[in-house]
């Protein structure tokens, strides 16, 4: 697998990068292209020609698969992409979070809020206590802080007699008479023998 990332740049900068990557380009104006990061690994500078732009490394809300082809007919998976380098203009504000809110396509707009479930607010002590109780129950012992109540079973004959006498017996409701549906006169009756199976 290869290591890949997505480089998102402003439209004006994208035209300059296209000209730089063009094989027939002969202008020496944008020949140099550089990307360097600071010690935190999340912020850096993107240099093209003599211009410097601020850049940020952001985590995408979901993994994007990348494919390549050698013969224009079959695709081979090349990488899983989970990060994006966003290059900003001089006046644009830096993102406040390292997790990018949106995906790469319009349906994934605000994907972190709309498509992924928020983590529940659970007390870690409660989770560990429940986990210990479950382990004790699975081992055959009683759980902590649980009251065990033993109930005596009544004699089956008396219990059934009481339950029958206390509960009224429901009577089935009568269904109204519904005439049978009249068959369509245009369709002849078909039997299974009339249909032939030619799929053999």
TrEMBL record:
Residue ranges occupied by any TAFII55 protein conserved region domain in the UniProt entry: 1-145
Region annotation Disordered: where it falls in the sequence: 142-200
Subcellular location: Nucleus
Pfam families: TAFII55_N
Keywords per UniProt: Nucleus, Transcription, Transcription regulation
A cellular component annotation (GO) from this entry: transcription factor TFIID complex
InterPro entries: TAF7, TAFII55_prot_cons_reg
Family (UniProt): Belongs to the TAF7 family.
Name of the molecule in the record: Transcription initiation factor TFIID subunit 7
């Amino acid at each position: 697998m290869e290591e890949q990332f997505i480089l998102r740049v402003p439209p004006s900068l994208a035209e300059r990068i296209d000209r730089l990557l063009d094989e027939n380009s002969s202008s020496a104006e944008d020949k140099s292209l550089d990307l360097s990061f600071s010690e935190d690994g999340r912020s850096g500078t993107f240099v093209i020609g003599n211009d410097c732009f601020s850049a940020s490394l952001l985590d995408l809300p979901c993994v994007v698969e990348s494919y390549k082809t050698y013969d224009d007919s079959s695709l081979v998976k090349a990488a899983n992409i989970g990060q994006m380098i966003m290059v900003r203009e001089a006046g644009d504000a830096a993102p406040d979070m390292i997790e990018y809110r949106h995906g790469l396509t319009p349906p994934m707009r605000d994907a972190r809020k709309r498509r992924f479930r928020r983590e529940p607010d659970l007390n870690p002590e409660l989770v560990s206590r429940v986990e210990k109780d479950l382990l004790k129950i699975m081992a055959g012992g009683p759980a902590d802080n649980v009251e065990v109540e033993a109930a005596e079973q009544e004699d089956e004959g008396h219990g059934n007699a009481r339950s029958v006498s206390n509960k009224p017996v429901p009577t089935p409701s009568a269904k109204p008479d519904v005439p049978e549906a009249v068959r369509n006169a245009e369709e002849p009756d078909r039997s299974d023998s009339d249909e032939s199976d030619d799929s053999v």
